């Protein structure tokens, strides 16, 4: 029968944790966070200019490539953190451990960051028409894409600045038990 206590992870429940992170890896993750933040600000500028009818420069399409440069490493590092905790766990325990790590890590995000993520997600998912979009077809395309860019840059920004460091700290602490 399942234990109905509040689920707090221990070393026996989560495996061996992670090895300490090298200074290069920490610096690289900070760089990814900064790139995600720069991408978010740039996509916000492109989005607002397209909203007001100003055709953004052609180079703004580079933001489309940049999304993959920050989003894929975010997914891979989270996957590594989660898999490192699942040694010897049943599927149900692994899912529970993953959920607990997620919620404990998310607690480190400031309230304004959580609100910004929710609002950005809701805005990115809306498909309403904007009044005053850029006149050309390219401007309308940029406007449509930039809504998605906002979301796909903001989430890695929050992840690399708050969630990943906290999740790693939790995993390293459990590894020392």
Rg measurement, Å = 19 Å
N to C succession of SSEs: HHHHHH
Mean pLDDT: 76
β-strand number:
0
Distance between the termini: 26 Å
- Sum up the overall morphology in one term: elongated
The helix fraction, in percent, is: over 70%
Note down, in words, how this protein is organized:
The chain is mainly alpha-helical and 177 residues long. The protein has one domain (21-176). It has helices spanning 11-14, 23-51, 62-84, 91-106, 111-125, 137-176. Helix 5 packs antiparallel against helix 6.
Quick description:
The chain is an all-alpha fold.
Question: Which key features would you list for this structure?
Answer:
6 helices; single chain; mainly alpha; 177 residues; disordered N terminus
Layout: helices, strands, pairs:
Layout: H1 11-14, H2 23-51, H3 62-84, H4 91-106, H5 111-125, H6 137-176
């Amino acid at each position: 029968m399942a234990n109905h206590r509040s689920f707090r992870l221990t070393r026996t429940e989560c495996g061996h944790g992670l090895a300490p992170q090298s200074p290069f890896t920490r610096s690289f993750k900070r760089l990814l966070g900064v790139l995600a933040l720069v991408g978010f600000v740039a996509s916000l500028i492109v989005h607002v200019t397209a909203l007001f009818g100003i055709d953004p420069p052609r180079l703004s399409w580079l933001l489309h490539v940049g999304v993959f440069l920050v989003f894929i490493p975010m997914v891979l590092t989270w996957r590594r953190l989660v898999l490192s905790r699942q040694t010897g766990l049943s599927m149900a325990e692994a899912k529970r451990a993953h959920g607990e790590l997620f919620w404990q890590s998310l607690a480190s995000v400031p309230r304004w960051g959580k609100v910004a993520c929710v609002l950005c997600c809701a805005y990115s998912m809306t498909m309403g028409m904007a009044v005053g979009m850029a006149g050309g077809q390219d401007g309308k395309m940029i406007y449509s894409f930039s809504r998605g860019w906002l979301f796909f840059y903001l989430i890695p920004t929050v992840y690399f600045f708050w969630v990943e460091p906290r999740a790693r700290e939790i995993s390293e602490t459990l590894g020392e038990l």
